Every structure is written in structure tokens, then in C-alpha cells.
Amino acid sequence: MPRYYTFTAADAVEYARQFGGVSDPHSLVSAEEIGDGNLNLVFKIRDTAGISRVIVKQALPYVRCVGESWPLTLDRARIEAETLVAHGTFAPQYTVKVLHHDAELAVMVQEDLSDHAIWRSELVQGKHYPQAASQLGEYLAQTLFHTSDFYQNAQLKKAEVARFTNPELCQITEDLFFTDPYVDHERNNFEPILQPKVDALRADKSLRLAVASLKHRFLSKAEALLHGDIHSGSVFVADGKLKAIDAEFGFYGPLGFDPGSVMGNLLLNYCGLPGLVAVREAADGREQRLSDLRELWLSFSNGFLRLARDKTQDPSLAEEGYAAQFLQQAWHDAVGYCGAELIRRTIGLAHVADLDTIKDDAMRADCQRHALSLGQKLILTAPQIDDIESLIARIRQFS
């Protein structure tokens, strides 16, 4: 008989007392449900002094932002916990710590990150964390290299691909990234003023072919264990610190997808800044986002190549020059996925505060159009953009 039931606040407190690893479990007395995402319940568990001590997260059997009409597997909670544990093995300083997880209850207990802030919220307010981009690049280098064919035994990796098969969550990505924005679908969400721009995107045959190629690579390349949904809203930051969270979309996919997703979210902020802050602050912030792009990619690529030089296990893949050749292919993928993120976050189901919280209607529409145009041009020109400096030059050109 299934053990699953949906937690109440009281259930979350009791669970945290059992599995939170605190020295005084009975000091845990209350829970605050803070989940603002699309899929899960998230409880902050507080002690008698009102201090949050641990987090209890439970998957719901449906997409929360839609309701029970969109059922969803609970196995995603297992995949999330095991992805975080795997990533934490190789990048513990940059991965939220899983204290306990139960696959049948679709629940896990995580370390509390109340001394951190969500990176997206900080970016929207114009706050800059100098270390964040390079630290996130190092997280990506460590996690993607160590779960790739460069490091993993071939037979083990094939078994891991099976263990992390995540068809329902991948289907969400496949639809929301690569299908819905380019057709008239009820899940899409955009203001009528954008309709002419949306119609032009959908009529662009070259764009649709390029997106089809991006989707096909997403479907068929099992290159590394991805976070699968890494963006400025799934990263916590503090002075000198960074933690990746929310890995329920984890699966073995194209290595360029995770870096491309982060790049896309930095550029969503780049596009939105003129509507979020004052003119001079927006100009400075945009330059900082371009610097963040550079730091992110260089931290990731240099870290990956360093690891490949020192730790590649497969003798064929250790051939001098091969890792750099492989990474160049991943770079072109990343630029394309970056563009797809810009488009889907502007007109698809799941939006971002970088654009949606712009109060002035005309400015918001201008920023959204910029995001759509930039996404379109990056997807179309990705094969010709050979390095990070060329990408930054293209962004300046397209702005």
C-alpha cells in the first residue's frame, strides 16, 4: 500500500524532528510553507526562537501552478535528491546538502540557506555578487566533467543514464523550451502587444529549423548528469558563497544545456535592467552582466579543461586536443540553448521577474521584445559564434 500522503505544516515539523539532524529536535516547533515554484511544497522549519533550522521539501503528484489536471510523477523527488547528492560529491561547497530523503514519500530534508538570497531576486534589485558567476562556472565544471565519459567508466555511466532517466520532467522541458513558444498553445503566456513579434518568430523557417536541431540534441545527447533547470532562480548567493538547489529536472543530457540556461538568465536580466533600475544604473548593470557571462564561461571551460587534462580516465578521450574540441561543440550548443531560454521565458508558460516585474507597460514590452529578438539572433547565429568574446560582441551588436 502506498505510503505517500501530502504533508501539512505539522507533518513537516515532525519529519524534521526525525530526520533534520539537529541536536535538539524538540526545539523544532513550526513550519512556514514558502514554495513559490511550479512543482513542490517547501517548508521552513523553525525553532522556539523563530530561527529556520532545516528545509523539508515534498513533491506533489501534479504541476502545482496548473493543478491536478496536469499529473506528474513523484519519482522526480528521488531524481532530485540523487542528483544533488551526486553533484554534492564533486562540488560540495556549491550544492545544497541533502540531509535525508525518502523516495516513497517524495520528500527530502535539506540544509537551511536562510543566510543566502535567491540570485535572481538580487539581480532584479541591481545587487551584484562578484564571486557568483565564477563559482557557478566551477560548479558546472566539476559536476559535468565528473559525470561525463571523460571521467566515468563507460559501463557505470550507462547504468547512471538509466538511473537518472527522467521522462516526464524532460517532456516538460522539451515542450516549454522547444515546442510551445513556436506554436499557438494554451500554455503560452504573453501580452497582446507582443503578438506581432511572436507571429514573426513563428514564421521564421530558419529559426524553427535551428530550434528543431537544439531539441534533437536535447533528446539524444547523454553527455553528463545535468542539473536540468539551473538558472538565477535556482541558485542561492551570499557574500563569498553560492549554492545550487532544485535539481528535479536532473538527467543525462547535452553538456551545453546547463551553461546555456545560466547564460540565458543572465541575459534576461540584461534585457530587463532598463525597466528595473535608473538609466545609469541600468547601463552599469548591463556591463556587469556581460562580465558575468565572461566569468561564467571562462570559469566553466577552464575548469573543465583542467579536469580533463588531469583526470580523464578514457585513453581515447585523453588524446591531446580532444577535450578542447569537444568543449567547442558544447559551446555552440550553449549559445543556442541560451537563445531558447530567452524566448521561452518571455512568451512561454514560465516567466521571470527580470521582465515581468517591470511596472511601466511600454518599457516592459520593449524589454520583452529585446529578449525575443536577442534570443532569435543567438539561436540563428550560434554556429558562427566561436568564443565568449564573439558572443559579447554579438550581444552589443544586437542591442
UniProtKB/TrEMBL annotation:
Its EC number is 2.7.1.100. It catalyses: 5-(methylsulfanyl)-D-ribose + ATP = 5-(methylsulfanyl)-alpha-D-ribose 1-phosphate + ADP + H(+). Pathway: Amino-acid biosynthesis; L-methionine biosynthesis via salvage pathway; S-methyl-5-thio-alpha-D-ribose 1-phosphate from S-methyl-5'-thioadenosine (hydrolase route): step 2/2. Keywords: Amino-acid biosynthesis, ATP-binding, Kinase, Methionine biosynthesis, Nucleotide-binding, Transferase. InterPro entries: Aminoglycoside_PTrfase, Kinase-like_dom_sf, Methylthioribose_kinase. Homodimer. Belongs to the methylthioribose kinase family. This is Methylthioribose kinase. It comes from Hafnia psychrotolerans.
